[in-house]
Amino acid sequence: MGRRATDGGSDMAPTAEKPAGPIKRVRRKAANAESASPARAGNSVSVEVLAPSAPPPGRLAGGAIRHADITMFLRQLIMLLEAGTPILKSLRALSERGEKAALRSLVTDIAQYVEMGNTLWQAFERHPRYFDVVFVNLIKASEASGTLVTVLQRVVAYRDRHEMLRKRVRGAMFYPIILLVACFGAILFIARVVVPEFEGMFSKFDVELPAMTRYFMGAAKVAGTFWWVAILAVVAAAAAYKYWYVRNPLRRLAADRAKLLIPIVGPILRKNAIVEMSRTLALLLRSGLSMMATLELVRNAIHNRAVAETLQSMRDSVERGGGLEAPLRAASDIIPPVVADMFVTGEESGRLDAIAEQVADAYEEEVNIAISTIGDALQPILTVFIGVLVILLMLAVFVPLITMIDQLGASGA
Fold it and tell me: What dihedral angle (degrees, nearest 10) is formed by the CA atoms of 375, 380, 382, 387?
């Protein structure tokens, strides 16, 4: 549930520039809004919502801590607590027996902070690199309601499913990149190896080249000489996107909206965002957090800013005493109408947590199906591209070659 970073930290939700850091307390004045939404009326735990700020510099000694390491730590903590071991004794045991030095250092710090008389959520709060604001709020609510083990079990199940889906989506995004690199390599091979051979042959036998062949060879010569410009442009574009474009809220919002419109890939990203939103919403509501607190936390946790903007509208509507229907209907380009229908039904029936879980399950299955068929979707595009390349090569190179052979045959006769 922690924020995944280049230092190997964990991640609550796929990849991205979301806020993290030492968690500051923010009070939300939403008592009237809470009662206006029946989704969890009378069933929520009153806790002070925590919000993230800037992360502290540095990292724990002993190497990086991966997402899987934090999940394993939580799973082992659950087993000890279920066996009746006190929380402090459990933390001490895990701090002594961990396989990674960095993880042992992390758990040792948590145990020492709890031993000083602080709560478990306050100990986790000290390490936002590994335990994000959503996780900390879940632990805070569970300690207030006496459901720590239950919430930890839900968190571990969430992390396992989320990490598995994140890896599959990332793999699906790499597939088109691999195809583009393969096509670029084929073009570069033709430009630097094939075309020069034919050009030398045509020059040697003084063959008159048609205009198309001259253009093709000129383009191949440029591509063979300045191929590095294309690579430099891609690297520069990626750097500009990461370090300039997405750091501006308006530019990042536009970029995240554009991602959802990319052919083939866009629908997968959109469905994955719905899974992320719905499953996090269900997890928070089932753990006893109020509607206002849940919407605020999901908005901070979600990676796609276009979806986060919709969640902000939902939160504002609830704060004004309204429901979820109006903001969901207004975001029909991001939230499918059927999802809006299910959320509205869940809100009206007081079963929004269960409905959100059903939505997450359904769309996760759709993401898995889309990922498994992405190769079939891209194959026709790749086939057409290679076919056009082969036809151009034949027209530009092999037609003059045939003419040259005919000329040699005629001169020999």
Answer: 150
